Amino acid sequence: MTKVKYLILGAGPTGLAIAHTLAALGEESFLVLEKEETAGGLCRSLEVDGHPLDIGGGHFLDVKRREVLDFLFGFLPESEWREYHRISRIKIRGNELDYPLEANLWQMPVDDQLDFLESIAQAGCVSDSPMPEAFDEWIVWKLGERIAQEYMLPYNRKIWSTNLSELGTYWLYKLPDVSFRQTLQSCLEAKASGTLPAHATFLYPKNHGYGEVWKRMGDALGDRLRTRTPVTSIDISKRIVNEEFQGETIITTIPWPLWTAVSDLPPVVAGRISSLRNASIDIDYHPETAPTDVHWLYEPDEDLSYHRILYRSNFCAGSRGYWTETNSHRATTHGKWNYRNDYAYPVNTIGKPDAVAEILSWAEKHRIVGAGRWGTWEHMNSDIAVAHGMATARKLLGK
């Protein structure tokens, strides 16, 4: 039996950040278990058609969190990253508009601008009508009927492949917030206004895929990382995993539904876990290089299976081709190369916050800590996942 103070399940960005922060703070008794042969989780890269392809979809390093940047530069130095100013667009009415749509309606023909402006002016948030609780109704209330029906609702039906009335509104603070006044101002001045989206400026490795930094972090752990080690059993009372590894505390960054298959959970907790929903996403590579400067494009047309295109050649130096992201329930045909991420995005259903709170409360009583995207069932960009991992490690050590 291998015994450690901290047994970390999963070597994605959060698990890696926890491990390295523990080590930096002087803690030596920890071990990371990872089912894949390479660390990185959803941020891993593989070589496809002669260049790296990010198999978990589009992941980029936001520049807003200096502490996270300095932390990651310790493994992949700053000189090995290239900075980009985000170019992302939305396909709508035959046009490609910069993201976010509300801030860039001015790029449409005047008649189309008037259509959307009139609709936004009639939105519930402009007339101070009560804010709805269901996601689909909230979108109409916030953005107006046209943006809702031509972009936000079809796009979200594609990415989540679920009834949108089942989604809550508690997570919508993450969307760019552009007021009607700012939208009108942008149309009059023919320039964007309002808040900038995440990754307005981002970093991407010069000579590698995004997975390189996580691979190096995994390599730096040496024998404190056990790859090719899927979790096959968990004895909750003794905190023993696979009948081989025991932790005084278990830190889980793997999806909670995996626990139901390998451990004897109380029925109430198992029921809460079964209520959690996630989206599975297919990544399909296409070798053709498109004549565009866009980094990624959002596609709300429901006649097309995919919801996003990432133009690899515009951020991965020397590469060609592009990849699409498609909810696996919508996948019909595949590109030259395909990879399925069974756990890609947590789905923000109405009852999720209460379910997660109950799961984490039970876990804490058994010295089990949920961390990262899957441990908290919260969508986190990689920089946020790293920050969460660093904070989790400090909290564990009381520092």
TrEMBL record:
Entry's Gene Ontology cellular component terms: cytosol
InterPro entries hit by this protein: FAD/NAD-bd_sf
Annotated Gene3D superfamilies: FAD/NAD(P)-binding domain (3.50.50.60)
GO molecular-function term, one example from the UniProt record: UDP-galactopyranose mutase activity
A Pfam match: NAD_binding_8
Taxonomy, superkingdom: Bacteria
Listed name of the protein: Amine oxidoreductase
